[in-house]
Amino acid sequence: MSEFTHFKDREDAGRQLARRLQHYADNPNVLVLGLPRGGVPVAYQVAHALRAPLDILLVRKLGLPGHEEYAMGAIAGGGIRVLQKNVLNQLHVSPAAVQEVIDRETQVIAQREHLYRDGTPALPLEGRIVIVVDDGLATGSTMRVAVEAVRRHQPARLVVAVPVGAPDACASIGAEVDEMVCLSAPMLFQAVSQWYADFGQTSDADVQDLLAKARQPDRAQEARAAGLATQFTR
């Protein structure tokens, strides 16, 4: 892993990440999962380069009450949660305050699941090679929940791929998955954003557009298949 890799933006990071994942290209059993919102532009580039389907995995960071930028854990759908107990104990965060944040973020997950999928069912994970992509790893709590959520679906192989991450986070996540790809793990890591020239916010509309673009080849293939079936039934 390079110590000094910087990225122009999330799209550039995704293209660079895809080059490290080329051994999965054109494998029909591969599925790429992006973590909304910021991980989706990265995952889109990976899926496009590997010619693999793209889906999302809804995970939410649990921010400390009054200091939401600092994580005290993360949750995913289905009641999966990871709490940083050392943080909760050191800052004396009450169970009631933690539950309040969990309830709020659970509602956000449900809302975004409806918004992003727009009636499209989640792609099956069982028996597949699942590559989970985010734009970076800081504490690793969000990715740890994502890994646990995917594991429950019994994939054949679980890969985590990020452009940049804190060395300890990349190492700890790497110990939990079949393959860990982190392009850069700088020792002086402070935040994911410092390794991007452009780290602008990814909007809900951006996520919807990328998911719709990723599904277009599938629709075109279905249309061609339907046309062939029509020809054979004439």
In words, what does this structure look like?
There is one protein chain. This protein is an alpha/beta fold and 234 residues long. The protein has a domain at 10-58 and 125-233: Rossmann fold, CATH 3.40.50. Helix content is 43%, strand content 20%. It is built from seven helices and eight strands. It has a five-stranded parallel sheet, with helices on both faces. Strands 3-4-5 form a three-stranded antiparallel sheet. Strand 6, helix 5 (141-151) and strand 7 form a beta-alpha-beta unit. Helix 1 (10-19) packs parallel to helix 2 (39-50) and helix 2 (39-50) packs parallel to helix 7. It is globular and about 50 Å long. 40% of the residues are buried. Mean pLDDT is 89; it is low at 219-234.
- Shape-level CATH architecture of the domain at 10-58 and 125-233: 3-Layer(aba) Sandwich
Radius of gyration, in Å, reads: 18 Å
Give the biggest beta sheet.
5 strands, parallel
Biggest β-sheet: strands ordered side by side in the sheet: 2-1-6-7-8
The percentage helix is: 40-55%
Distance between the termini: 58 Å
The total of beta strands comes to 8
Kindly name the structural category. alpha/beta
Indicate the proportion of strand residues: 15-25%
What is the helix tally? 7
- Point out poorly predicted stretches: 219-234
Shape by Cα distribution:
globular
The average pLDDT is: 89
- Element-level helix/strand string: HEHEEEEHHEHEHEH
Task: Report the CATH topology name of the domain at 10-58 and 125-233.
Answer: Rossmann fold
User: CATH first level of the domain at 10-58 and 125-233: which class?
Assistant: Alpha Beta
